TrEMBL record:
The lineage of its organism: Bacteria, Pseudomonadati, Pseudomonadota, Gammaproteobacteria, Cellvibrionales. The chain crosses the membrane at residues 251-272. Keywords: Glycosyltransferase, Membrane, Transferase, Transmembrane, Transmembrane helix. InterPro entries: Glyco_trans_2-like (IPR001173), Nucleotide-diphossugar_trans (IPR029044). It comes from Kineobactrum sediminis. This is Glycosyl transferase.
Length: 354
């Protein structure tokens, strides 16, 4: 078994094939398992590991310096969020390819070899991911995701399907030049939904977004912001996750949807959000749910309309392919309706970790 070759503590490789970029915010035990999974890769090419610590309030920085001197550490003095953290790492990276890896994820031992092999065959170069497995149970979570009409991710479980609408940012492989061409993650997103935005941009420009059927990675789903995983037969989430998720899905819908459908979809989407917010507020006897999460979408959308119009113009002016190509990885039934039938009304935790 050939272990992954990383750069020595006192020097960086001039031309690593891959730069593994890990955005980190507190939890040394999380980042340790993640980095160890990279160091134990069975591959023949050179890899550099870059970690951006987002001003962790614990001993993460000291832990990384003491235990992983081979890792390139970017220690931020202030908390800047997931998007900025990743953009800083990619700007610092030297690899031909970038693997964005969550600090609460761990790769299978053949992951990098599998991704590199598939990337060399992908034409034109686009975005790749691996099957995602739950950290605790080991169950398959998804092989990338499809999207419903309102940009809600729908897990793809079909091993025969490679083309997907989006891949989860916990394990996202992309060529450095493609990242630069697409503009990377939008810094103004903060966190949540940045992977959706980037993958929709790629598909709008007729670049492939694919899930490789082999290998995989384990992931502690929803660890960073709470929710995103059924527990005891019920879905729960946090205010912060829902606020960012609903806002950023709406931003992506407006910016990326081809002209013929953007206005009908946006109007229906906003009406459904209003109904959902009011319904949850009544059921929970808590009207801050509607105000803080759902009505906030209106405030954010109109407050950022000039910036969103500018981004939309850039991406729509450079789009390729037909309307059916962009929506070729979409489902018809709204995913929230399917989840409601399966798990009932979701619980929104005010005090969930953020």
């Amino acid at each position: 078994m050939a272990m992954v070759r990383v750069h020595p503590a006192l020097g960086r490789p001039e031309a690593p094939l891959c730069s593994v970029c890990i955005a980190h915010y507190q939890g040394p035990e999380l980042i340790a398992a993640c980095i160890d999974s990279v160091l134990q890769q069975d591959c023949e090419f050179t890899v550099e590991i870059i970690v951006h610590d987002d001003a962790s309030p614990d001993e993460s920085v000291d832990f990384l310096r003491a235990n992983y001197p081979q890792v390139e550490l970017l220690a931020s003095k202030e908390n800047v969020g997931f998007c900025v953290s990743n953009k800083r790492m990619v700007a610092h990276a030297r690899g031909k390819y970038i693997l964005l890896l969550n600090n609460d994820a761990a790769l299978f031992s053949d992951a990098l070899t599998t991704l590199a092999r598939e990337a060399e065959q992908q034409n034109p170069p686009g975005i790749l991911t691996l099957p995602q497995y739950d950290w605790e149970s080991g169950d398959l979570v998804d092989r990338g995701c499809l999207l419903d009409p309102f940009y809600n991710p729908v897990p793809n479980l079909d091993p025969e399907r490679r083309d997907v609408a989006m891949v989860i940012g916990a394990c996202l492989w992309i060529e450095r030049e493609t990242w630069d061409r697409l503009g990377g993650f939008p810094e103004w997103f903060g966190s949540v939904g940045e992977d959706l935005y980037l993958c929709c941009a790629a598909r709008l420009w007729a670049l492939p977004v694919e899930a490789i059927p082999e290998s995989g990675y384990r992931h502690r789903q929803g660890h960073s912001f709470g929710g995103n995983k059924p527990k005891d037969g019920r879905l729960s989430s946090s205010y912060n996750r829902r606020i960012m998720s609903e806002r950023n899905k709406t931003f992506t819908l407006y910016v990326m949807t081809p002209t013929a459908l953007v206005w009908p979809l946006l109007i229906i989407h906003l009406l459904l959000l209003t109904v959902e917010g009011l319904a949850l507020s009544v059921l929970r006897l808590n009207f801050s749910v509607a105000s803080r999460i759902y009505f906030n979408v209106y405030r954010e959308l109109f407050g950022n309309l000039n910036q969103l119009r500018h981004k939309r113009q850039i991406f729509q002016n450079n789009k390729n392919g037909l309307l059916r190509d962009y929506f070729g990885t979409s489902t018809v039934i709204p995913h929230k309706l399917s989840m409601l039938r399966r798990y009932g009304v979701p619980k929104i935790n005010v005090g969930a970790k953020s």
